[in-house]
Amino acid sequence: MSTATSPAAEATPGAMAPVPYRVLERRSETADTFTLSLEPLGPAVAPAPGQFDMLYAFGVGEVPISTSGAPTGDGSLVHTVRAVGAVTRALCGSEPGDVIGVRGPFGTTWPLAAAAGGDLVIVAGGIGLAPLRPALYHALGHRDDYTGVSLLVGARTPRDLLYGEELAAWAARRDLDFGLTVDAAPAEWLGDVGVVTRLIPTARFDPSRATAIVCGPEIMMSFSVRSLLERGVPKDRIHVSLERDMRCGLGHCGHCQLGPVLICRDGPVFRYDEIERLLEVREL
Amino acid sequence: MRTLEDVMAEGPVFAGLERPQLEFIAGCGRNVGFSRGDKLFREGDAADTFFLLRKGRVALTTHVPARGDLAIETIQPGDVVGWSWLFPPYEWHFDARAVDDVRAIAFDGACLRGKCDEDPALGYALLTRFAQIMIDRLQHTRTQLIDVYGDVSGS
Amino acid sequence: MEPVRTPVVIDLDGLDALIAALRAKGYCVVGPTRSDAAIVYEEIESASELPAGWTEIQEAGSYHLERRDDEARFGYPVGPQSWKRYLLPARVLLWRARRAADGGVDLAEPPAPERPYALLGVRSCDLHAIGVQDRVFLEGAYVERDYALRREHAFLAAVNCGTPGGTCFCTSMGTGPRAEAGFDLSLTELLDGEHRFLVEIGSERGAEVIADVPAREALPTDLGASRQVTDEAAERMGRSLDTLDLRDLLARNLDHPRFEATAERCLTCGNCTLVCPTCFCTSVDDVNVLADGSSERWRRWDSCYSIDYSYIHGGSVRPSARARYRQWLTHKFGTWHDQFGTSGCVGCGRCITWCPVGIDVTEELAAIRATDGEVDHAHA
């Protein structure tokens, strides 16, 4: 009997093999957060808004990072990374010209098509604005698909705000209901102070036809969801993006389980009513 | 032409009050305006007024030595500024500064306090509404305290 | 001899010839053998290495070997190891990469192992366990490359169970004791009269191999004896489990006090995950090879009991023993259904045997079922 491996198994690279991407630009957003612009050196990876890629720093490791740019069609990628560990520090330390590895795209997407015909409400806390930015780009680029678009942004302090120049441009748009607030600010800050949930009661959307997409620290998402529910947005039109430890992105390593769901496969974007109970169980 | 009562009835603060009660409270109110940067009131001043914001935002601030006037919270249009008029010693605990040009209804708290003493039903109705406002603020302040964006350490 | 599909009978010499035939075809034959006071799965070169005349005595937290009063070659239930040692090895190189001069990356994945495995002595429970892992690694959106390469060419020679153990409950899980499908060959050891093996043929591959082994046609008495072996084994299970609506039972009892109570005994040592034939969790190690500047990615076994298994943002999501024990139990018997469409348990009993403190999943689940709805308010 033949002991040769089947041609199919050998020819196609396994799904754990990254493809090379070159860093074009590294832009500093805050003291510990950077946005990398990447171009493909080989096969292209094309995440849709809400999806994530596994970014690999050679010899250091891999992390799941959501896409934070608009789909381009030419394979280029934009990822905003916060340096919190060895791998993210290595990625944030990369220079233009450096080569990193990419696998993906993985996961579920923001429900932008389903939200069409109504108001889209985007609630972003801290680094949570990064996975939501592609959704905003889509909404602004297809503005007539929506009866209204609200962007509510919260961060710890003004220095923790991402995409500063864009924030100012968004604030000036007439076709966007924009709210921005920080938890604490120095005296020079002329914007709002308070938790991002404070913006929800007075944001300009109609709960009866709104779809809300929320991203940020899990506890911020919980409070925001509560405010949205209080305002009358139905549970099945609120979507959150969850996060768990991931080692493969393929549904093979088991790490990203949250009860019955695998975050890499069934998420990271979830409809709130589908995972509400799971978030209530401690240490699940 | 919309009356003060119409405007008041629209917002959540006075919703559900009976028309006579609304008219009564409206009788203590008047339209006011502030320019951006104006102080609505100062910490320690006698608190005899509360404001229903119609347009523009107001920041509650406090002065911290060497750090200047720090905003604690920004109140949005449609919301109410001030509850110190309800409780002794009837003094403001914070400064309030107009962040935008502000249009508001200012209510004479001293007058209202007197009327509430005479009409307990009105007093109860107002107290429950202001209690709700305070609960809301407390929840949000607590959320601010736990620092949801807090520093992380990584692997 | 021409390949046949109807069952045949081979004798002890035939068993040796079967192993030789597999080796002649290039297989690395892995089978049971005695080592370190246990019956383990290692490469064997002849039938003389099989644990003839030995059996295992298993109970919660205890395992030892005893002599049988016959020379059965497969007269034991299952040892501490499962076949995942070979299909999902504990440490595997996934790829090696080097940055090329032009700035790109040369990445090479290892070829399939030179010698495919012939697994001899696969119990029905373990056969089902392989099927459970097939669903995880081959039937999702992505195929696990290394597993697929090993699995595709693996020859499965099942052995029907005649000696179930004290912790076995395959009948409760619907996974045995008789192998029904998913094998290339299935042997039943018959000790009534002539010491022989009924061989059922499950595939072309199996037919081709057995064609090279001296065998005779199976008689109705051989077939009847074979049935009797497994029928009797089915009556001698050491444990049983009521699996009715187990998924829903666990889903609605996540705050049950039993988890804390058992967590006080649990050492979170992870033995259960090591010996379990379906536990598949892995992690990756990305390393630099200093000698030549290349980078490697290795895949290694991981366990949901380890404290850093669920590490994210500076902390573990499941720091308490209660949470980690609950994760394992509710995944194995509950959420595995949601994730992969089957139970994760095949009733082999290894976790009961090899738990140092003797935690018995059948007892645990029965206890939760008996007090369905109780809530541990202190930890909920």
Instruction: Please state how the strands of the largest beta sheet of chain A are arranged side by side.
Output: 10-9-8-7-11-12-15
CATH secondary-structure class of the largest domain in chain A: Alpha Beta
CATH topology of the largest domain in chain A: Rossmann fold
What does the overall shape of chain A look like?
A: globular
What structural category arises from helix and sheet content of chain B? alpha+beta
Tally the helices of chain B. Answer: 4
Cα-atom Rg of chain B, whole angstroms? 17 Å
**Major sheet of chain B: order of its strands?**
1-8-3-6
Give, in order, the helices and strands of chain A.
HEEEEEHEHEHEHEEEHEEEHEH
CATH superfamily of the largest domain in chain A: Nucleotide-binding domain of ferredoxin-NADP reductase (FNR) module
Radius of gyration of chain A: 19 Å
N→C terminal distance of chain A? 48 Å
Determine the CATH topology of chain B. Answer: Jelly Rolls
Biggest interface, chains and residues, is: A-C, 47 and 68 residues
Identify the CATH homologous superfamily of chain B: Jelly Rolls
The CATH C-level name of chain B is Mainly Beta
**Total strands of chain A:** 15
Question: Explain this structure to me?
Answer:
The complex is a heterotrimer of chains A (284), B (155) and C (380). Chain A is of the alpha/beta class and 284 residues long. In chain A, 23% of the residues lie in helices and 30% in strands. Chain A is built from 8 helices and 15 strands. Chain A starts with 6 loop residues before the first helix and ends with a helix. With 155 residues, chain B is α+β, with helices and mostly antiparallel strands. Chain B has helices at residues 4-10, 19-26, 109-118, 120-145; strands at residues 29-34, 39-41, 49-55, 58-64, 68-75, 80-81, 95-98, 102-108. Chain B is globular and about 50 Å long. Chain C has helices at residues 12-24, 84-87, 124-137, 145-152, 170-173, 204-210, 220-234, 246-251, 257-263, 271-275, 321-340, 350-354, 361-370, and strands at residues 8-11, 28-35, 38-43, 54-59, 62-67, 91-99, 105-108, 117-122, 155-159, 185-190, 196-201, 216-217, 282-289, 294-301, 311-312, 315-316. In chain C, strands 3-2-8-9-10-11-1-12 form an 8-stranded mixed β-sheet, sandwiched between helices. Chain C has a 4-stranded antiparallel β-sheet with strand order 7-6-14-13, with no helix packed on it. Chain C has a two-stranded antiparallel sheet with strand order 4-5. In chain C, strand 6 (91-99) and strand 7 (105-108) form a beta hairpin. The radius of gyration of chain C is 22 Å and the shape is globular. Classes of the chains: A alpha/beta (284), B alpha+beta (155), C alpha+beta (380). Chains in contact: A-B, A-C, B-C. Chain A binds chain B through residues 82-86, 88-89, 125-126, 155-156, 160, 181, 183-195, 197-199, 201-202, 216-217, 219-220, 223, and chain B through 12, 57, 59, 67-74, 76-79, 99, 140, 143-144, 146-150, 152-155.
